[in-house]
Amino acid sequence: xxxxxxxxxxxxxxxxxxxxxxxxxxxxxxxxxxxxxxxxxxxxxxxxxxxxxxxxxxxxxxxxxxxxxxxxxxxxxxxxxxxxxxxxxxxxxxxxxxxxxxxxxxxxxxxxxxxxxxxxxxxxxxxxxxxxxxxxxxxxxxxxxxxxxxxxxxxxxxxxxxxxxxxxxxxxxxxxxxxxxxxxxxxxxxxxxxxxxxxxxxxxxxxxxxxxxxxxxxxxxxxxxxxxxxxxxxxxxxxxxxxxxxxxxxxxxxxxxxxxxxxxxxxxxxxxxxxxxxxxxxxxxxxxxxxxxxxxxxxxxxxxxxxxxxxxxxxxxxxxxxxxxxxxxxxxxxxxxxxxxxxxxxxxxxxxxxxxxxxxxxxxxxxxxxxxxxxxxxx
Length: 379
What we know:
InterPro entries: ArdC_N (IPR013610). Helices cover 35% and strands 14% of the residues.
């Protein structure tokens, strides 16, 4: 009896249905970020899985929590996630009957880039014309599947060194690393005796004088948290940057979230961070709905935090990949942080909704051309 194989149209329809379902899941996950605590938990998860875009982190977090509630995971946070073949590369196999977690991965294509910057897609085997250079660009997204380490068996994974901190202790080298980043931007870092000297704040970043001031009368961890916050301002909120948030409250949410991200990447409990209810700041973004505002703000937080972390030579917790995974053996590993790949106009509809993690910059909601920060930003 002849088997009815799915047609190409059927496959496309199936993929589009899966994409629609993933987008709906992602939107629901963003809408569920109601309280400041919800937002902080999402930031901590993103720090522990910082190889993945924030959108994919939310998808992973939602599915991990559901698996935890069903007793399939011992904790809401998987140890690591990887694709089926990536686990095989490490000598481990997905256990029979395990269901994958779905995320969004980029689809790319060869394009020809002309001297004037115009881009056209190349057909299979087509060569560029004179004056054109060949590049690879993102042209869309597709569903991809990963499995938590807990859904696999095989040889034990190598133990990854992680910071072991006593209560109230700052991560070794983090203060010095942040201070070096400040000096690299030609800013000065100085102490002040107490909060009264800087208007009741713990720290302040000032453009013009190009100085960052931090209270000296705090414990080392509190000072390091404050410095992380101020470096978040320094990296992400230059008044000359057209993408700086127009609303100061959103800038403070970003800086505090960056600090939580950076500290979580160093194994520090950030549950005591204070971020307002999401609705109180997301609704202030002009020109976009709150869901888009949350996604764009989260993408900026991740971009700023990764820029800071990339400049540090400190011991951090793993980034979501299992130890020993060699991604050069699998260039199509889903959801990985990529280099210069950029979305094409054809992908803009999806890219505007889903943080694809391929671009290291995201426009900020509510930014007007004339808006600028002219005073210091305080924590």
